UniProtKB/TrEMBL annotation:
This is NAD(P)/FAD-dependent oxidoreductase. InterPro entries: FAD/NAD-bd_sf, FAD/NAD-binding_dom, NADH-Q_oxidoreductase. Its EC number is 1.6.5.-. It holds the Pfam family Pyr_redox_2. It is an enzyme of class 1 (oxidoreductase). It comes from Micromonospora zhanjiangensis.
Length: 398
């Protein structure tokens, strides 16, 4: 009987993992099923571009994985039973179950309202394609002089504010942040960010806590109101809630706790990658939710599964950071170089060259997903180890 591998989620991490497993394992020994709610691969790092009216090329998953041995299942995951080793799904034909021997959990994250009143009803999000399209429709209705307020001063908020301001210079764009603008950046990076905000006419409201969102304004902890015909909420992400409803060991925020091979510390037949996983990077620092973390986690998890099933050597590659790539509209960018544990160093690349650098990185990540069988030599090894690891966490031996 073939070893059944089910991958949940076809974002960057899930798609990378499924393709890498298909290259590593012999088709006669495994079945690989990739489950995703949407039929297309979504370039999540470009949602701010989609929101301002730029067109993104459709990337059908069935076409991407045609001929790879990966079976694409378009369905919504509604539950995971880690004791019975089944996944509950719903698709156009109704409800069903998928049994697995190895599960790769890559359902990622979604926007988080943080319980702030009015956010769910009045704010827009950029964590999903449907959210970006709704924001796109709303922005198209705005007339000159109306206010767009982006709440959240992280990477997503900065990219959203600059993209909107560049595409719609007739609007009054503002960004609200709890700290200083770009406070995680180096002095050079902070200075350049302020320059770009000034050129684009973006108002930065710093050291502000938002306490409520209404249809045309936001309220702050110090009693002020800030105009907002459109509020874009980018204050962080929350993981998919399914894992927290299982017997898996998770953090308070619902991330699955994994070891350095991306394997669940409580259920050895489950692997978690990307935003859904709580993994340690350099200096025992938890990896942040990002594409920069997710793709290496996908490689590590897929190679670990293949090694355990074929009796190969387990990878223990340290997961680290090199830089943060930030687009500031289509013409300018900021590449902030960082330490292995993601702390900014003085060096930063700015301007048009940085914008081109960021575009190369985005295209490279997407190309890797779209070409799952290209690149490293295919080494489809036969499954030789026990495909059902013991709950004690004992390693399969060669």
């Amino acid at each position: 009987m073939s070893h059944r591998i089910v991958v949940l989620g076809a974002g960057y991490t899930g798609a990378f993992a499924a393709g890498r497993l298909a290259r590593r394992l012999h088709r006669a020994d495994v079945t690989i099923t990739l489950v995703n709610a949407e039929p297309d691969f979504v370039e999540r790092v470009r949602m701010h571009q989609l929101a301002v009216g730029q067109e993104l090329k459709p990337r059908p998953l069935t076409g991407m994985f045609a001929g790879t041995g990966v079976d694409v299942r378009i369905a919504r995951v509604t539950g995971v039973d880690v004791d019975r080793r089944t996944v509950a799904v719903t698709d156009q034909h109704g409800a069903g179950e998928l049994p697995y021997d190895t599960l790769v959990y890559a359902l990622g994250s979604r926007w988080s309202t943080h319980g702030v009143p009015g956010v769910a009803e009045h704010a827009h999000e950029l964590a999903s394609r449907p959210g970006a399209l709704r924001l796109r429709e709303r922005l198209a209705t705005l007339t000159a002089g109306q206010a767009v307020t982006v709440v959240g001063g992280g990477l997503t908020g900065v990219e959203a504010a600059t993209e909107i301001a560049e595409a719609r210079p007739d609007l009054k764009v503002a960004l609200v942040t709890r700290g200083d603008l770009g406070d995680w950046l180096s002095a050079k990076g902070r200075g350049y960010l302020r320059e770009v905000f000034g050129r684009l006419g973006i108002t930065a409201h710093e050291h502000i806590d938002v306490t409520g969102v209404e249809a045309d304004r936001i309220s702050t902890a110090d009693g002020r109101t800030i105009p907002a015909a459109v509020t874009v909420w980018t204050t962080g992400f929350a993981v998919h809630p399914l894992a927290k409803a299982t017997a898996l060991r998770v953090t308070d925020t619902g991330q699955i706790v994994v070891d350095d091979t991306m394997r669940s510390v409580s259920h050895p037949e489950v692997y978690a990658i990307g935003d859904a996983a709580y993994a340690m990077g350099a200096n025992d620092t938890p990896l942040r939710m990002s594409c920069a973390s997710g793709v290496p986690m996908a490689w590590q998890g897929a190679d670990s599964i293949a090694a355990r099933l074929t009796g190969g050597k387990l990878p223990h590659v340290p997961l680290r950071y090199y830089n943060q790539c930030i687009s500031l509209g289509r013409r300018e960018g900021l590449i902030q170089y960082v330490t292995a544990d993601d702390r900014s160093v003085p060096t930063a690349l700015t301007g048009r060259l940085a914008a081109r650098y960021k575009e190369v990185v985005c295209k490279g990540a997407t190309w890797g997903v779209l070409n799952p069988m290209f690149g490293m030599p295919a080494r489809r090894r036969r499954v030789t180890a026990d495909p059902t690891p013991a709950r004690s966490g004992a390693e399969a031996t060669a």
